[in-house]
Amino acid sequence: MIQIEIRLDQRGALLGFAVSGHAGSAPRGEDLVCAAVTVLFRTAARLLQLHPDIRIRGNASDSGRMDLTIEALPAEKRQWLAGLSDLLVRGSRDLQEENPKAIALRVTEGEV
Predict the structure, then answer these.
(1) Pairing assessment for the beta strands 55-59 and 2-9 based on DSSP bridges
(2) CA 28 → CA 33, 51, 59, 105, distances in Å?
(3) Which candidate, 9, 2, 17, places its Cα nearest to that of 112?
(4) Inter-residue contact 32 to 22 (CB < 8 Å)
(5) What pTM, to 2 d.p., does this model score?
(6) Confidence (pLDDT) at 28
(7) Phi and psi (nearest 5°) for 61?
(8) In what order do the strands lie in the sheet with 103-111?
């Protein structure tokens, strides 16, 4: 099972995420659920990396695991980040609803 945790601040902007595990719905390398989750979160991380004024810390050194934390966010990037946050949450919820036995999702909102 894939465990997804998305952490949001009080206004719904991304603080970070953690993704781990494998869906187990097909052989390794052929699992569409794993591929969908990977594309969603890898793309989000790469978009964040494109903004040098947004400081992030992350790790994806192990297969089936990715962690990312936003350490510094300029005020002028908050609205952009809110859009990315909405995309991650909605995409994750859709995937979890379509694959409830393969994905466990936790979204924490309102943290500092």
Answers:
(1) unpaired
(2) 11, 33, 21, 21
(3) 9
(4) no
(5) 0.92
(6) 81
(7) -75, -25
(8) 55-59, 65-72, 14-20, 2-9, 103-111
Q: Which residues pair with 8 in a beta bridge?
A: 14
Is residue 5 pLDDT above 90, yes or no? Answer: yes
C-alpha span between 76 and 61 (Å, rounded): 31
| HEC sequence for the chain | CEEEEEEEECCCCEEEEEEECCCCCCCCCCCHHHHHHHHHHHHHHHHHHCCCCCEEEEECCCCCEEEEEEEECCHHHHHHHHHHHHHHHHHHHHHHHHCCCCEEEEEEEEEC
CA–CA separation, 10 vs 99, rounded Å?
28
Q: How far apart are CA 4 and CA 67, in angstroms?
A: 10
Sign of CA dihedral 93, 5, 13, 69: negative
pLDDT of residue 69: 96
Pick from 108, 104, 106, 107: which is nearest to 22 by CA? 104
